[in-house]
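Researcher: Last one for today. Full complex below.
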Amino acid sequence: MSNGRCALVTGGSRGIGAAIAKGLAADGWAVGVNFRSDAAAAEQVVRAIEDAGGRAVAIQGDVADPQAADAIFGRLEAEIGPVLCLVNNAGVRADGLSPQIGDEDWARVVETNLTGAFRLTRRALRPMLRARYGRVVNVASIVGQRANPGQANYAAAKAGLVGMTKTIAAEVARRGVTVNAVAPGLIDTDMTAGLEGGLLDAVPARRPGTPDEVAACVRFLASDQASYVTGTTLTVDGGLSA
Amino acid sequence: MPATITAEQVQSRVFAALEEFGADPDALALDATFESLDVDSLDLVELGQIVQEEYGVEIKGEDMPTLKTVGDAVALVVGRAKA
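Model: Here's the assembly. Have a good evening.
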C-alpha cells in the first residue's frame, strides 16, 4: 500500500537506514532504498517492505559522487513520482586520533556524511518547493555535540549537518518544507561494532539503542503531524547527552 | 534552447511564471518591483530554475540583490542568453 508519495533513504540497505526505510514504508511512503555497494542487502530490505504490503525500489549510488543526486532522483521521479521525503542517512567512518587522520580519511568522511547530504538536499528541494510540501531528515550523531576521541572527521561532518539543517530549515519553512535532524547515540549496528566499550557505561539507559528506536523518531519528523517542527535536532541516545 | 531569444519571449515567460507564483496579473509590468508583487526570494530561486531549464541561463545567489524589478530579471536573462 502506498499513498503515492516517495521517500528516499540514503544508505538504506543496513542498520539504521534499513529500519528507517521499513518504517517509512509502513507509514505509506513508497521508498527508494539507496545503497552504495551491498545490492543484496538492499534487495532484502525491498523484499521485506513488499512482503509487508509496501512499495520500494533499490537504487545504487554513492552519495559522495557529485553526479549521484541527479541520477538517484531522476530514476525515482521516473519510476515512482516526486520525492517528498529525503532521509540523509548514508554515512561512513574512518576513525583515528587527529594526528593520524590523513587528508583522504578526512575528505572521505566529510564528502559522504556532509557534502553528499547537502547535494541530495539541494536536489530534493526543487520539487519540494514547487509542491509546497517536503520533509528532509538528516541523520546526525551525538558525536558532534559531545566529544568522542578518534572521530574528529566524523564529528565535524555530523556537527556540520546540524548547522546545515537549521539554516536550510529557516530558508524553506514558508513553503511547507521542514528540515530536521536526529542525533543517535550508541545504536546497535555494524557501524558501531567495537565502539561500545567505555561509551556504554556512560549511557543512563544502560543499553545501546536499536535502529527501530531511531527510525521511530525519523518517522515522526517525516509525518504530517510534525508540520510545525523544523530546524531541530531530536536526540535519541538513552540519556547519554542529558 | 532556441537559437535566438527575444526580450518579448523572456518577458512573456517571466510574467507567466510570476502569475503562477501568485502575483496579481494586472500588476505585472517591467517596472513593477518583486516586493510590490509579493514575490519572495524563494520565488526568484524558482524563476531561476525555470530560465535555466528553458534558456540555459543561470541566475546565481550573488545576482539576487540586484534583482529589484521584473525588468531587471528580464534584462539579466536576455543579456546572458546573448552572451
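The interface with chain B takes residues 126, 129-130, 171-172, 174-175 of chain A (CB under 8 Å). The beta strands of chain A are 6-9, 30-35, 56-60, 83-88, 134-139, 177-184, 233-236.
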